[in-house]
Amino acid sequence: MTVGQYEAMVRRAQQDPEAFWLEQARRLSWQSAPRQASRSEFTNDIRIDWFADGRLNVSENCLDRHVRTQPDKVALLWQGQEAEQKESLTYRELHARVCRLANVLRRLGVKKGDCVAIHLPMVVEGVVAMLACARIGAVHVVLFGGFSAEGLAERLSDSGALLVLTADVARRGSKRIPSKTTMDEAIARCGAESRVQHVLVVRVTGADVPMQPGRDLFYAEEVAREQPECPPESMNAQDPLFLLYTSGSTGRPKGLVHGSGGYLLWAAFTHATVFDHRPDDIFWCTADTSWITGHTYVVYGPLANGGTILVYEGLPSWPEPGRWWDVIDQYGVTAFYSSPTVVRAAMREGDEVVRGRSLASLRVIGTVGEPISPEAWQWFHDEVGKGRCPVVDTWWQTETGGVMITAAAGCVTPRPGAACQPLPGVQAALLDTQGQPVEGPGEGLLCIAQSWPGQALTIWQDHARYRQTYFTTCPGYYFTGDGARRDAEGDYWITGRVDDVVNVSGHRIGTAEIEDAVATDHEVVESAAVGVPHDLKGQGLVVFVVPRQEGVFDPAAVSRAIAAAVGRYAVPEKIYAVRDLPKTRSGKIVRRLLRKIAAQELDGLGDLSTLADPEIVQELIASVQAQNA
Rounded to 5 degrees, what angle do the CA atoms 90, 91, 96 make? Predict the structure, then answer.
């Protein structure tokens, strides 16, 4: 796409969004084409409504139409941790695998609208499972492999999943993750709330795992019994495709629901537009499929566009630094989409590691998950992109379904550290603390003024929470929860979260979820979790703990409680034992002070007179310094 074509698209979307999105809808194959784009409403009851009179099937869009036109084109390249572990699947072959599993699901009683939980590492079966659910109209919920049994149980109970796909044992570098036994414990924890009737087990390592007769079945044996054809279910564009859990500022994770038509169009549109997709691209998004980035840019966007995706099971630097750069050279990757955390880790390994690889195939490189610093952006551009690849730093959320603000490759001039420009059809706005729009250059709350196709429809079984979370802070707007600055050129710079969510290596962790876990340690009276800047992870988690008895406190016990309730990825960088926490007279913890103290940013602590005990601040500073000594 040329700059002129992109700018024309921006104008068209502004002038006549209804016509623009109906034109864009032609990217998809419809069983019944929509005659209306959106009837969404950001006031009163809140309704997200896209292509509601259209019918389609997501799996058919990602597979069947490409099987008809390019059956022997490679759809999926898979590389395992070891060099000999690899697969290459054409669209015809991927279609057959998806149909076989879809038939298994139907045989086991899964129907349109039922929920299926997918708890798999980065193996081919994970992609197949998502598309098989879409084929029969089942709603999939992909669960992160690092969740504890308690975290899995909470999500299984809330989603009401009827069937689970899991691995025997997952690989993560030299570590082995006991997926099946953790899932068994999770289902047991659900007790009477569990609706799980079957567990399909994928043999990843071949390890012996306990199998419950009647409930547990081996994946390979079941799909071998089925035919490679399965008629796709006809779905309304508003029917749920998947739900995906994300942490909020309250302890209970929320299941965001994404629909079929609007989401798939947004995935296809943004993949094509942001990354300047070309037919011969090898597209590698390194995200796990348990996160929204993996849904949209590992699976649905590239496959809807008839592209070739690369799925890699292993870690960036295992068994040695530079492993991911070797994979790029091995497969001729043209578009590489990863996280600032990966970039910072590569910087630490040294320039000679990346300079020892060709990377000549790369055409576009991008980042996602958190803002990238100008220094890391420049290194990524110079060393990985060799100074010739556009860098697309992307801002978006689980709730948005796909990229919202970026420097689209070849169409918008990128600037180190800036999110840059809203995509065509994205009506970004800044509001001040009184809810008034900020015109021109300025800073404020980042909001979206109008709905877009990829927007989440609701929170699973809790539309009131959806309304409360996203539409009450700034009435008439979708409130992103982020702050931003807009400069004189109209570029957006994300300034960070304005609620109590910590972003650790792209994983959004609700501080209340951490504090709920800490509360299970009976030696703890109270705690407060905050995020602080971290040179590798973007943000690190720090927890302040008030022990029940002074001098009786075991930080390791708190870490174990968090790992058990949330997952090891949420274990804090630091745990400080303190006498008390800074609170207002109404009892609200003043987290901004804890963030500053934890980060040793002691200038400009602000007015302390509103605290119930102003002297606690200096006591906290001294305590933290002593514990760091």
Answer: 100
**C-alpha distance from residue 168 to each of 102, 164, 183, 188, 221 (Å):** 21, 12, 10, 17, 14
CB 305 within 8 A of CB 298: no
- What type of residue is 624? V
501-628 under CATH 3.40.50.150, yes or no: no
Cis peptide before 319 (omega within 30 of 0): yes
The pLDDT of residue 410: 95
Q: Of 434, 437, 439, 459, which is closest to residue 447 (Cα–Cα)?
A: 437
* Cα 400 off chain centre by: 10
- Residue 94 CB partners (closer than 8 Å, separation 6+): 63, 75, 76, 127, 128, 131
Q: Which pLDDT value is given to residue 463?
A: 96
DSSP 223-289: HHTS-S--PPPPEETTSEEEEEEE--SSSS-EEEEEESHHHHHHHHHHHHHHTT--TT-EEEE-S-T
Are 61 and 39 in contact, with CB atoms under 8 Å apart?
Answer: no
Note whether 88-233 and 501-628 share their fold: no
Q: What is the pLDDT of residue 249?
A: 41
Q: 569 by DSSP, 3-state: which?
A: helix
How many alpha carbons lie under 13 Å from residue 615 in its C-beta half-sphere?
Answer: 1
Phi and psi dihedrals of 357, rounded to 5?
Answer: -115, 155
- The whole-number pLDDT of residue 607 equals 61
Cβ atoms of residues 48 and 455 within 8 Å = yes
Asked if residues 118 and 143 have their Cβ atoms less than 8 Å apart, the reply is: yes
Helix (H, G, I), strand (E, B) or coil at 27: helix
Beta bridge partners of 366: 337, 392
- Please name which of 318, 289, 321, 290 lies closest in space to residue 302, comparing C-alpha atoms: 289
- Cα pseudo-dihedral 374, 377, 379, 381, rounded to 10: -130
Amino acid at position 627, single letter: Q
Nearest residue to 314 via CA among 623, 9, 86, 44? 86
Q: Which residues contact 95 (CB under 8 A, 6 or more apart)?
A: 63, 64, 67, 228
Q: Does residue 337 contact residue 104 with C-beta atoms inside 8 Å?
A: no
580-598 pLDDT, tens digit per residue, is 888 865 456 888 899 999 9
Query: What pLDDT is recorded for position 25?
Result: 98
Please tell me whether residue 582 adopts helix, strand or coil conformation: coil
Separation of alpha carbons 195 and 509, rounded Å? 27
> Where are the domains positioned within the chain?
88-233, 447-497, 501-628
Tokens representing residue 20 in the block: 């623009």
Long-range contacts of 327-332 (CB under 8 A, 24+ apart): 327/79, 327/284, 328/284, 328/357, 328/359, 328/361, 328/362, 329/357, 329/358, 329/359, 329/360, 329/361, 330/79, 331/77, 331/79, 331/282, 331/284, 332/282, 332/361
Q: Please answer whether residues 328 and 362 qualify as being in contact, where contact means their C-beta atoms are separated by less than 8 angstroms.
A: yes
Series of mean pLDDT values for 10-residue runs along the chain (629 residues): 95 97 98 98 94 98 98 98 96 98 98 98 98 98 91 94 98 94 97 96 97 98 98 98 76 88 98 98 96 97 98 93 96 96 87 96 94 89 97 96 98 94 98 92 96 98 95 95 93 82 79 83 86 88 88 86 88 92 71 90 74 86 91
Q: How far is the C-alpha of 246 from the C-alpha of 177, rounded, in Å?
A: 22
> What distance in Å separates the CA atoms of residue 463 and residue 45, rounded to the nearest whole number?
9
Q: Which residues, other chains included, contact 263 with Cβ-Cβ below 8 Å and sequence gap of 6+?
A: 241, 300, 401, 453, 454
88-233 classified as CATH 1.10.1660.10: no
How many Cβ atoms from other residues are within 10 Å of residue 203's Cβ? 15
